[in-house]
Amino acid sequence: MGRIHDALADGSDILFEGATGTGKTLASLAPALEYARETSKTVVITTNVHQQMRQFRRDASAITDEEPIRAVVFRGKASMCHIDVGYEECQALRDTTRDLVETEEELADLERQQRNLLSDSQGGDSGAAEARSAVMDELDAVEDDLAEFEDRATCDHYYRNLTADTDDFFAWLYDDVRTPDEIYERAHGEGFCGYELLKEGIENVDLVVCNYHHLLDPMIRQQFFRWLGRDPEDVIAIFDEAHNVEDAARDHARRTVTENTLESALDELTESDDARSEPAYNVLGTFLEALREAYDEAFSFGEREQVGENWYDLAIANDDRRDDLTLTFLQNYTGPGFSEELDHAVELGRELDQEYEEAYKNGDATVRQECQTLQAAAFVRSWLEEGDEMGTYPVVSTRRDEDTDDVYGRAELYTCIPEQVTRGLFDELHASVLMSATLRPFEVTEDVLGLDDPETMAYGAQFPEERRRTYAVDGPELFASKRDDRHVQETITEVIEDAAHFTPGNTLVFFPSYSEAQRYHERVMVGNRYLDEPGTPANDLREEFAADGDGILFTSLWGTLGEGVSFDGDDARTVVVVGVPYPHLDDRMEAVQEAYDAAFDVGEKEGSGPTVQGEDAGWHYAVEIPTIRKTRQAMGRVVRSPEDFGARILVDGRYTERAEIEMGQYAVRGAFPAEERAEMIDVQPEKLKFGLLNFYQDVDAYDGDPPTP
């Protein structure tokens, strides 16, 4: 804690890796709150895992029991709106409601003035009558203004925020660390808008718990800091599960426009009589036709029929020239310079958007219309100006309309290098703490997020080593080409069955995909089998499995159970990772690799993994390290306290020492931290059961006689 406090005092960012159960949250939060109190700053702790947000609330509540702090758990508007309207519509309702209240207050003030002047004039003040006459004229005008609100949409909940006494609500809010659901229910019961009260209530608090997007989305971040009443340099940010920041930053940086948005923009321009409408229609219409032509030409024979309800990527990027969509646009566009016309289209879009805002506020429209021209023109301008920049990957995707069965397209600018999003954030903040159980190699995290000389600290497993075992099963290397091999499947099935049979409790098994999880769910014939499937609620399944005592849960390492979900004590005793779960190596992943190769001429580096040179950086940064982090996260689902015990099993020859000698770049053991490699015990598939039997006997885990090999 002292090191973290000192680093914060220096304004340094901190990379903090600590094994599961080592108290990373409190070790980061306590010194951050202490330093923030000394220097009048606010601590923001953020995660992208819902369970962790709940844990943060509990930790903050425990802190307030010892030393009172003002802490708020903040959640976005979408889940807290009492009348279920969109962001733009809510903004317009809020502005109109505020105008209404201000008008009513002005009217009440004028009425007080005229009553006082009337009393003065009746008392013989000759000037009071004349002054009252002027006030009465103002009153008439304000009453007319107030009458206009009868036809304008307002929000009753926000109206009560502005007009009712909220002191009791805020006293209740700060008395403990309230959940967003509690805030919503309390506000709803009193007729308030809980979201707006939350925005008001986080100003200058000691601690805010929130989701990643409040910091990683540049537009939301500006508003968030304004609500905090803090400049960025007065904020200390703690990122939990910080190994996820890279992917989250990419998601927040992506920009898209659909064929439907472009069509709506053209309809909008058709109805406008502004002189800029025709050239704007020309440039956006040309881009729409180019988009359609680009995905039509990108389809191979029979590929169009494969498109379903999910977005389906098509390759349009070229190594030696602009992408196919841009080239088609440039070939087809006729007219004045498109860059200038797009600037005019954006200007027109902003004006139309303002007109829609005023129409909704004035009651001339029942909904707050969004300006499609503004969205489309701004995107097309970005596409043409930024589509060939390093680290930006242009993509065209298609999907099928479930109502019409027609295929339609989307253009997307995909950001390969998250540093373009995160560097500005970390430069603005006073300091940040990025914590995770799987943050190493630190130099990779520094590079991809754009951190300058952060403090680094790593603490391995603090629990007794004799209460855990890690086995690397020297079985077949589960390359995709081998997964259908009968001998491979039989070997993996026997390993899983042995693991479950000799585990005194539940066994958790991770696979590279849901399809592989389903395959072995059907093959394994021991224990009570549970299958995690995509799109199904994982929490109910987890609770049912944890209560079993003799269960085997089959899931994907890329699902929701691989991290941020606790399997403490008897919930799971053994975790098995089958295969090396590399992500699907599609065009996007290749673009990320190429961007990293170009951006990071790393030469030779000393890290926890193998030496990285030149063109290998892309594979190492974009594929290998994130994959091993996923594997380490899965391994961390068991042995989560000093009293706990359990076994971790890696089933693939690439995890073994033999692979380091024989398989070159395909070996992955070297990508684990040194102390974790030192604990790995290589074992043949048929010998695993003896290792498990001996280990669980050593920790006296069997209730009664142990299983027979």
Keywords:
alpha/beta, 709 residues, 7-stranded parallel beta sheet, globular, 14% strand
Structure description:
Mean pLDDT is 91; it is low at 603-614. Helix 4 crosses helix 16, helix 14 crosses helix 15 and helix 14 (277-298) packs across helix 16 (338-361). Helix 22 (538-546) links the parallel strand 14 and strand 15 (551-556). Helices cover 49% and strands 14% of the residues. By secondary structure, the chain is of the alpha/beta class. The protein is built from 27 helices and 18 strands. A 7-stranded parallel beta sheet has the order 3-4-2-5-10-1-11, sandwiched between helices.
Strand content: 5-15%
Low-confidence stretches: 603-614
* Number of continuous helical runs: 27
The geometry reads as globular
Question: What's the topology here?
Answer:
Layout: H1 2-9, E1 14-18, H2 24-39, E2 42-47, H3 50-66, E3 71-73, H4 87-122, H5 126-148, H6 156-163, H7 167-175, H8 180-189, H9 194-201, E4 207-211, H10 213-216, H11 218-228, E5 235-239, H12 245-253, E6 255-258, H13 259-271, H14 277-298, E7 312-314, H15 324-332, H16 338-361, H17 372-386, E8 392-400, E9 407-415, H18 419-428, E10 431-436, H19 442-449, E11 455-459, E12 468-473, H20 486-501, E13 507-511, H21 514-523, E14 528-531, H22 538-546, E15 551-556, E16 574-578, H23 587-599, H24 617-635, E17 646-651, H25 657-662, H26 674-679, E18 680-683, H27 688-698
Parallel strand pairs: 1-10, 1-11, 2-4, 2-5, 3-4, 5-10, 12-17, 12-18, 13-15, 13-16, 14-15, 16-17
Antiparallel strand pairs: 6-9, 7-8, 8-9
Helix pairs in contact: 1-2, 4-5, 4-6, 4-16, 8-9, 12-18, 13-14, 13-17, 14-15, 14-16, 16-17, 23-24
